[in-house]
Amino acid sequence: MENETDNESDNESIELDSEDEEYEEFADDEGSREVVVPGEILTEDTKTYLPGRGTIYNNDRTKIMSLNIGLKQITKNYINVIPLRGFYTPRPGDKVIALVVDKNPVKYKCDINAKDFGTLKPKNTIKKDKSRSFRGSGGSRGRGGGGGYSQEEVNTSKYKIGDILIVKILSADRINKPELTTVGKYLGIRNNGIVISIDPPKIPRVIGRSGSMIKMLKNLTKTNIFVTQNGRIWIKGEDLAHERLLIESIHKIEDEAHTVGLTDRIKEFIMNEKKIRGLE
Length: 280
Prior knowledge:
- By secondary structure, the protein is an alpha+beta fold.
- The N and C termini lie far apart (about 45 Å).
- A hairpin with a 6-residue loop joins strand 9 and strand 10.
- Helix 4 (about 210-220) runs parallel beside helix 6 and helix 5 (about 240-255) packs antiparallel against helix 6.
- The longest helix is centred in the C-terminal third of the chain and has 16 residues, at about 240-255.
- The strands form four sheets. A five-stranded mixed β-barrel has the order 8-9-10-12-11.
- The chain has six helices and 16 strands.
């Protein structure tokens, strides 16, 4: 069973450079700021491009059209439309910040900033020991209730109500509530720090093209930052003044997400504010 304290310590020491791959899927293409509307044809080149988020083929699959009012974005060979405003829709594989709001002996109930709460089962909070047998002497499978897990590992004592978790969406559909896991790289409890929320569609702008914005934010404000797809951002700075400046900068990004040249403008804002506040 993973040690909860060790997991939290590891999370605190994560450096942004090691997290760069986490942002590739929803990084921002700052060069594309074209506003489109529902039904608008985005391309007829269906041999080169595929529909991504917020887009769909027409009936004969000869065109890709927009489903939302938003910003057209081309990432690799996918055409996406990033809504100007919207709710978070869970998708398998997404990493999100969750708040434990309730629990019973068999599951945790987690707020993931979506229409439905997420479900975190105890078996999805621990790494399974592959060397453990399902049919150990004395009937360990029956005692553990989870085949390969001990009784201590299939209860809900690991996390408390109010804990902040980085989780991954295991499954999500229209019928069942999202199922979560805390097993994986960068996942687990992360109570030390501050969590803020912004409109989920604006998250790519906080990342920036190839991670340019978030790297700049981290370096100029001397903070650790973890951005997730449900619009929640975990930050921990060396002091409250730097954290406050970072929060103001993120909200400025949110307000001006539709504009061009945002990275340079945010850099200038931070540098000026650091001089005014004596943070140099």
